[in-house]
Write a structure and sequence with these properties.
Oligomer: homotetramer
CATH topology of chain A: Chorismate synthase, AroC fold
Order of helices and strands of chain A: EEEHEEEEHHEEHHEHEHEEEEEEEH
Mean pLDDT of chain A: 94
Structural class of chain A: alpha+beta
Radius of gyration of chain A: 21 Å
Helix content of chain A: 25-40%
Low-confidence stretches of chain A: none
Distance between the termini of chain A: 33 Å
Number of strands of chain A: 18
CATH architecture of chain A: 4-Layer Sandwich
CATH superfamily of chain A: Chorismate synthase AroC
Shape of chain A: globular
CATH class of chain A: Alpha Beta
Largest sheet of chain A: 5 strands, antiparallel
Strand content of chain A: 15-25%
Strand order of the largest sheet of chain A: 1-2-3-7-4
Chain lengths: 358, 358, 358, 358
């Protein structure tokens, strides 16, 4: 119950600190017989990897997944899949200062308050480095979903004040630039905004949007484990996330029912809705339409400017960010958002298989 | 895993359909020795009860809680607390039509797709009536939190296009009017907007905001079960919710890190932050500041206007809303939001008690 | 985590005290579409009911199940199935004495130690009356298993020193006498032993044996949730149980490997073993053979003789059993053992459906 | 739900195959602040290690624990503790044969039936090698229990037909000989029996008994998660276990209530019972007396004699055991039994901390 496991049937447990020996993940409940494309898993990790472009942290980690169990002759065996990622570029000395003082809007203070002591190196377990293990597990979930024709795709929809409102048809446009915005012109402006913030020693926030396509009607549980509730929890569990909305979201609260309702019609593909304010989910259960959602990320807390704070004894002091950090987290958050969505969908796909008599 | 249980240590299971015999709830994990103030529980139910004002549904339910177990001589015994609420005002005939056709933006179609058959009376399990059981359980959670000086308070922050941006100091202002907006002038405009929509046979959405006060630093688990992730899931599991944000939320994504960071300082009450963009939670763990959040509700799906839809055989048809429904759900959602927040906090308060050696 | 829920996918939560208002059960995760034969459920409850014969307690309870939710037009809907059983024959005055002193080998002292206070009426939650809710849930599980050709059958294999070593082919012989031993001659001796003990104001223990037939190969999870581990836990959770063994059990520890191993052969029904020391389970997973097990019940703790004990203040005192109690619990334990076995098998049947790709 | 996690608050997940790259374990929920004595952990692993004496398998594994996370400056941090054990002495060629044919009374057939394919090398996940990860986790649990004055001690109580009926006062006698029976004379006979069986190419079973001392009254949950039910499940989840009993166990079923009941009395240490047929647990909750239990192990399935069996196509064939195997598993099972008992007690100690208001 310490909260390092995600999912009910497709269960993922992550472990490891930012500057400890290794990160890792155990996936328990992946069905036997899944062909595990290791190149795909590595490619997903590479999308999240630090140092991939000039707008991300320059920490150098190869993030090569080393599988320890659960796979035999290229297929999952039904037993736990464990994999680890070594921490290669540790620089604990960067963190001597934060062992003493609490970085504003970081988790230093709350960890200290909760546990009495903590691993201060790189934020320890609160570091976004933990999400590498999620991306690894999410890649396995994506492979499972692929067998059912389900695909998840996320992109950057906002950086600071630069917005992109579209929904790209496929992921290639998203991956064509370093900020992962499908529109090249908007992407250029986003990159310029990030460059400007970094030059100021400052940081930006933004929004990642996502879509899941090919989800059949029926996924999700009706009351507490509504599909969008689990998606929301998944996204909110990512570092720096401040909000989640799906379908019409917060904007939909200003519509009238007659404007917002999605009328049903019959198509060759079955029952569909003419609009999709529901975001592909009604009553917590997928309705066969695209599942669409948006995730808000705050600006990165580590800035290269002096800030007032206190130390462990409560004495006031000043702290200036050091180390290698992203000036804006959303470009690297795209594969993390996809991974978490894939974990939720894989779990609910399995759960749905036991919802009714065969 | 069918999703009718909420929480890990303070575990709540709800059951019952809108027009079945009774709703109910089982609370497992409430610590022994808690004085159970039954009048308070009933008062909370009364805040959610249908028919409480002219802007809510006119269904007549007394919603009297009948406790079956877990309480002895006014105190919890540590064994499961079960309580039921009879369904008194059933009018199944109101639902003959929807047994045949799928109401737009309701859960009729998705339940049918998932389960193969369903209880169509009043939406069955997908009815918001299920939330009465949550309010009952939430009242017990509030009593538990009260022993620790923790209180939860929610209010209506938006109805349609009428906004209220404040944070009231205490709940009495909220409860002083039927729309549950702390500002009487804004409340009057909200009520007028609801009246106008109802006159049109239409409905409105809105936003409920909430605050938890008195939460000590240290509640929440660091990775997947972050305090705000569990709060978000809790809120997103309420019928008609489309989004959740805490602290600076979506708006915070447009700030720079230097604007958004909450600097620490020492006060007589311990370490505090000068601003509270963090919304009282850092790294998923409470930091001792007020926990603030907002919940988006879509407009009610049942409108008194004809809408195109399809029936179970996929034939196109038209449906007009019948029965007794709320023209806007947010006034009655206020106690539900509070209940779900209380359940999350009670659970995490218990979880925190085992996080470190005594 | 307070332990009133059993199962992972087929989840059963029971509530209610012996002399409270009602007992009840919520089943979450029963697949939709199961025809719920209410007469069968009631017949199962009747097998456990007090007062059914002269060798059981004379407490009069009709134990009529009242279903509150989860069933529509005779079929399960996939939503939680809740049912309650009223407590009709409460005699709290029988328990005035035990509110003060701890009955030897009962749970009075341990509940007091754990919770600080307790409901002393009839043992409260520790009463075997709680098992009525299990039998109710088990009957639903049996109906689910029946759709797969799986049946569970238990019988009395020992009362005091009277043993029955056979394995009956079908349940009718078991149900032909009040002690539920398939051999009428042995049954008569068992009944005589119970009568003799009761006449002495004393009680007996015994053994219930069980078999599950028609279980396909593949049920059970390999490591911690081995099929027999879950069966064992299920049985050990029944009041008064002191031991569990399956297949060759404790006696098998005295065999050599060459005597104990079950050789495989091919039959028309597939791969089978010539002997069944494995008890139908190998490596925690069913192998298609009959699953056989035995459950040890201690003699009933309530005896009609004075016993030394202490009161809540630790003062030494004497207590003589009162109230209406079974002189030997095993005849009424038979349907409870079956119910728990059915719950385990139903749960593992569901779990197995997600173990591999379809 | 695939069953590789044990515990509710002190949660242990194991992974790894017998001849894969590594075994491992993740402990989630160990309280922060526990001093982690790595030498003690290693000493526990050494007690289970293969090749430790002439009566165990000669496979050579150093079983050095490598901790990856969750510990900082010698203390647990509250984050997941992960550790791995490399597989060093892999001889996959020993297993070419069993990739084709099913070893009698092994898990080859059932894994194949469940998953469709399997890792045949050394039994893959069904190998008792998985228990090394349990011993590692159990050592951490023992350290946690030690802070509360709770200790677990197991020993060999039977090998084949050689019995030892005592309860040793402390573990040193147990560890003084290679068979781990506290009585040297009985130990010698047990060793002789094992030698004789091995000389015949045959194997023996036996019984491991255990005691937990210093357990305070109040541990255990009253209904499904009774302390002995969780202990039983823990033991039954160990490879080769066929039965579990606690307190008077199966033998107690032949006593009368007047003989079996444990009378209470007051002592300087609080309320105690004169006898301990209850085995330290009443109503599923510890009563402060020693917790005593016994675990039945079948004879090892791998024998060096030809046995009839079938291959994956169902063709009849003959198989003779190869590789390096224990002729009797109970000496090495002693630390495994202790580890599983420690995991259960640590979990229930944590659970009890949230059972009542502080």
């Amino acid at each position: 119950m310490a909260g390092n496991t995600f999912g009910t049937l497709f269960r993922v447990t992550t472990f490891g600190e930012s500057h400890g020996e290794a990160l890792g993940v155990v996936i328990d409940g992946c069905p036997a017989g899944l062909a595990l494309d290791l190149d795909f898993v590595q490619a997903e990790l590479d999308r999240r990897r630090p140092g991939q472009s000039r707008i991300t942290t320059q920490r150098r980690e190869s993030d090569r997944a080393r599988f320890l169990s659960g796979v035999h002759e290229g297929r999952t065996t039904g037993t736990p899949i464990a994999a680890i990622l070594a921490n290669e570029d540790q620089r604990p000395r960067d963190y001597a200062e934060i062992a003493q003082a609490f970085r504003p809007s970081h988790a230093d203070y709350t960890y200290q308050a909760k546990y009495g002591h903590r691993d201060p190196r790189g934020g320890g377990r609160s570091s976004a480095r933990e999400t590498a293990a999620r991306v690894l597990a999410g890649a396995v979930a994506k492979l499972l979903l692929r067998t059912q024709g389900i695909a998840v795709h996320a992109w950057v929809a906002q950086v600071g004040d630069v917005d992109y409102a579209g929904t790209p048809a496929d992921p290639s446009a998203t991956e064509s630039n370093i900020v992962r915005c499908p529109d090249p012109a908007v992407a250029a402006r986003m990159i310029a905004a990030i460059d400007a913030a970094r030059k100021d020693g400052d940081t930006l926030g933004g929004v990642v949007a996502g879509v899941a396509r090919g989800v059949p009607a029926g996924l999700g549980e009706p009351v507490f484990d509504k599909l969008h509730a689990d998606l929301g929890r998944a996204m909110l569990s990512i570092n720096a996330v401040k909000g989640f909305e799906y379908g019409s979201g917060f904007a939909g609260t200003r519509l009238r029912g007659s404007e917002h309702n999605d009328e049903f019609f019959s198509s060759d593909e079955g029952i569909r809705t003419r609009t999709n304010h529901s975001g592909g989910i009604q009553g917590g259960i997928s309705n066969g339409m695209d599942i669409i959602f948006r995730v808000a990320f705050k600006p990165v807390a580590t800035i290269m400017k002096p800030q007032a704070t206190v130390d462990a004894e409560g004495r006031e002091t000043t702290l200036t960010g050091r180390g290698r950090h992203d000036p804006c987290v959303v470009p690297r958050a795209v594969p993390i958002v996809e991974a978490m969505a894939a974990l939720v969908l894989a779990d609910h796909w399995l759960r749905d298989r036991v919802a009714r008599l065969p």
